[in-house]
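User: Hi! I'm working on a homework problem where we have to compare a predicted structure to a textbook description. Could you give me the structure for the chain below?
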Amino acid sequence: MKIEKKIVSYAVKDESKKIETASRPQLIERGDILNGKTYKIRPGGSDHALYITINDRNGAPYEIFANSKCPASMAWLMTVTRLLSAVMRVSDDIQFAIDELKNVQDPQGGYFYKGLGHMPSVQAHIGHILERHIGTKKEVAPIVVAKQSPNHPNN
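Assistant: Happy to help. Predicted structure tokens:
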């Protein structure tokens, strides 16, 4: 069909052929101040510690940040934490993401971590930290929590 006039409007004739568009999940709003914890780990074979900060909103994790002095790991750390934060902002149930993280295998075999045993990867370790943080892990395993200064607003 050749169109010879300017199109000024349109309508769908057959509703059954209407394309369904995926709706974006409703974001959970962030408050001005969130309480959180920072966990310090030193993955096996690494010269640098890794600091994982998890901020909560209404008792559920809302965002996660990672920091390290190792520049080689910053790109994937930022990617993982941004994706996890995005999941946390649309749902209180992040167990599926935790399970996926815990199944990541490092091609070098992982490392042994005190109190937790064998960690298949740093990503799996982050999954264990998140699981422990939200309280779904059954066994008790020590995780070092970085101490905040006495003047920190969350104290």
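For your comparison, note the following. Residues 35-134 form one domain. Helices lie at 74-90, 95-102, 122-134. Good luck with the assignment!
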